[in-house]
Amino acid sequence: MTTTANTNTNRHSTYTTASTGTDSKNGDKKPQDLWSSMLDSVASAKRLPEKNILILGGTVDSQREFFESLSSSELRRTHALDRQGSRVPPVANSFALGYTYYDVLDADQEDTLARISLYTLTSPSPAFASLLKPLLTPQSIPNTLIVVLLDWSQPWKWMRQLREWILLLRTVLISLSDECKVTMEEVMLSWRDRGRGGGTNLDGTSAAPVSDADVSLPLGPGEWEDALGLPLCLVCQNAEKMEYLEKTQGWKEEEFDVVLQFMRTVLLKHGASLIYTTPSTPSQLPSLIHSSLGIHSLLKKHPLKHNVIDRDKIVVPPNWDSWGKIRVLREGFDVERVSSGWTIDLDQPFPAPHASSASSKPETEPMTDEDDDEEGDSVAEDADPEGSTVTLYESCVQDPTMDALQIAGRTSHSTKLEVETTETQNFLAQQLKILEAHRQKNEEATREESRLKPSLVKKTATDEDDHQYGIYSARPSDVLEHIGPVQFNMGGIQVDADDMVQRLKDRQTYGSSPEPTDEDGEGIAEETPQMDTENLQAFFTGLMNRRGGTGK
């Protein structure tokens, strides 16, 4: 028993002996830090690949819709109630350069494939170029995708908006360091080889090995003529508004095909992809975006399929399109002219010279309508050079709200405001001239009427007097002449002189007609002269006295 106990007490760990080494000369021990190496290996294995998306264009709401359509419902639910109780990451895109992120999960919703950071910008202002430059480094460029958002509510503005964003990107990419430019060149070379018989498919997955795997197909006309240095994806949102354009604006299949042909021709020069999306409708947008960033599921593959038949579900993967496929969509489309015109558009300086001159003009200087029209014409000439694809596109895809102005003969641009206001003082000055002209016209008419009125009134009064005295009443002289040899014995009836005088008074009072008046209520005839009743009464009294004297 004693021997056994001694044996147990002498036991020691064999792991520590194996973990240490002894120097044969001095017997010093050198410990090996195995725990640190193991922790480092595990941490590196669990480190998430980081991807970046630069979202350009759209509004605050449309950018949020893009984020929601990009992240599936399972992803949002997992973010809301994950193991650590964290919540859905907020979307901060209300001011200047916005930011949010989300994790891409595998098909089983357990493993995280990558974390995508989204940077948003709503305005192509040159002042925001300094905000984009720090995001592009030699380490981030291979993992960055450019997304431009357009909206079907205003398809006639697409070409102009796309040109402004690409010109802004050019100013940023040109100002990068030489190391960044070398990295961008390598990225573009790898993108050109996708789906061309090399070792990579259109979606970025590895292709099956073949005997002539090293032989790649040559580029067709108009392909990759103007590589930006970063992959580009054009997302046209709210495709359900195509039905609204068809029903209310009279759009037909021809207009929709023309829009698609223009966009495909322009994007072909940059090796970009195109997709139409509809809110709350499943689409290939997540597959297109994730494959462009090199994110692929380990459990379930999502093949990327092209679609140019369904007008509201268009999907054009990178390196799939060609001039021949664009011509087949509708005959008569001039692909060469559109492609060469786009090159002319991108050769313009950014920002345009007219923008800086307009901003430097003093605000206190008044501006007339003629100056406004001249400035609008000069701006259009400076912004759209001869042979511009933007001008050609806007002539084919016109803004329906500007048709009334064009019919009225006004030269207006589709991107200008629909309602143009005039300065208050200029408007009042124009109205004052109109009122003065009306006042002078009324004064001339009044003077002419007053000149003709006296002769007309005199003639009318004379005619009315003759008519009145000849029909309604008699003049006093006529009465006296008629009464001269009066015989009062009429049929044995004795007539009193006072009664006769009263009868004459009643005849004058009730027998006279009213004075005629004109339409304005002004009298045009003179007042009828009153009969001298006192003299008549004296006349008849004297006559009766004379008769009485004779009878006596």
TrEMBL record:
<feature type="compositionally biased region" description="Polar residues">
    <location>
        <begin position="1"/>
        <end position="24"/>
    </location>
</feature>
<feature type="region of interest" description="Disordered">
    <location>
        <begin position="440"/>
        <end position="463"/>
    </location>
</feature>
<feature type="compositionally biased region" description="Basic and acidic residues">
    <location>
        <begin position="440"/>
        <end position="452"/>
    </location>
</feature>
<feature type="region of interest" description="Disordered">
    <location>
        <begin position="344"/>
        <end position="389"/>
    </location>
</feature>
<protein>
    <submittedName>
        <fullName>Dynein light intermediate chain-domain-containing protein</fullName>
    </submittedName>
</protein>
<dbReference type="GO" id="GO:0035974">
    <property type="term" value="C:meiotic spindle pole body"/>
</dbReference>
<feature type="compositionally biased region" description="Acidic residues">
    <location>
        <begin position="366"/>
        <end position="385"/>
    </location>
</feature>
<keyword id="KW-0067">ATP-binding</keyword>
<dbReference type="GO" id="GO:0005874">
    <property type="term" value="C:microtubule"/>
</dbReference>
<dbReference type="GO" id="GO:0000226">
    <property type="term" value="P:microtubule cytoskeleton organization"/>
</dbReference>
<keyword id="KW-0547">Nucleotide-binding</keyword>
<keyword id="KW-0206">Cytoskeleton</keyword>
<dbReference type="GO" id="GO:0045504">
    <property type="term" value="F:dynein heavy chain binding"/>
</dbReference>
<keyword id="KW-0813">Transport</keyword>
<dbReference type="GO" id="GO:0007018">
    <property type="term" value="P:microtubule-based movement"/>
</dbReference>
<dbReference type="GO" id="GO:0005868">
    <property type="term" value="C:cytoplasmic dynein complex"/>
</dbReference>
<feature type="compositionally biased region" description="Acidic residues">
    <location>
        <begin position="516"/>
        <end position="525"/>
    </location>
</feature>
<dbReference type="InterPro" id="IPR022780">
    <property type="entry name" value="Dynein_light_int_chain"/>
</dbReference>
<feature type="region of interest" description="Disordered">
    <location>
        <begin position="506"/>
        <end position="530"/>
    </location>
</feature>
<dbReference type="Pfam" id="PF05783">
    <property type="entry name" value="DLIC"/>
</dbReference>
<keyword id="KW-0963">Cytoplasm</keyword>
<dbReference type="InterPro" id="IPR008467">
    <property type="entry name" value="Dynein1_light_intermed_chain"/>
</dbReference>
<keyword id="KW-0493">Microtubule</keyword>
<keyword id="KW-0243">Dynein</keyword>
<feature type="region of interest" description="Disordered">
    <location>
        <begin position="1"/>
        <end position="32"/>
    </location>
</feature>
<keyword id="KW-0505">Motor protein</keyword>
<dbReference type="GO" id="GO:0005524">
    <property type="term" value="F:ATP binding"/>
</dbReference>
